[in-house]
């Protein structure tokens, strides 16, 4: 962990903070009430801070495991490519932006809640794809790697379709808009990334 702190301090802090807060929530359900994002409340100016705190808690062990595993594979490398403060800005801003469509879509659904770091992690993955478009990427437990840029396209298509048709209680909108936010923010922070992206083909 000391090695990670040296070359990716911001990613390390976010990783530990998210793990610690999620584990805390598992043993103290009052944390969910204070940290979870409720679009109905946020759209009316209540608990606006939850656009950030909802990214620090997870529904269960599986939700936490898969999010943190994805984060681990990409975030530490991305901070090296992007820069320290730039990585922090990408993560925080994309976490907020990925929730805005959800807040608008469910502003009248008093019982709808959203939690997890999936939107920001999608941003991290797609920012990584801009830097390494030909890297091999695969879905967990399926040992077939495909180029990252193809994986990215398939991911966006799936999220768009699932947002309209899935009934699995997963916030696919956050995944989709987190990915888009990651692309846009990365280009803003690193103007040469698109040139490097196309040069690597």
UniProtKB/TrEMBL annotation:
It comes from the Bacteria. It is found in: Membrane. Its main location: membrane. GO terms for molecular function: serine-type endopeptidase activity. The chain crosses the membrane at residues 7-26, 71-98, 110-131, 137-162, 174-194. Keywords: Hydrolase, Membrane, Protease, Transmembrane, Transmembrane helix. Residues 46-189 form the Peptidase S54 rhomboid domain. GO terms for biological process: proteolysis. One of its GO terms (cellular component) is membrane. It holds the Pfam family Rhomboid. InterPro entries: Peptidase_S54_rhomboid_dom, Rhomboid-like_sf, Rhomboid_protease_S54. It is a multi-pass membrane protein. Belongs to the peptidase S54 family. This is Rhomboid family intramembrane serine protease. It comes from Mucilaginibacter achroorhodeus.
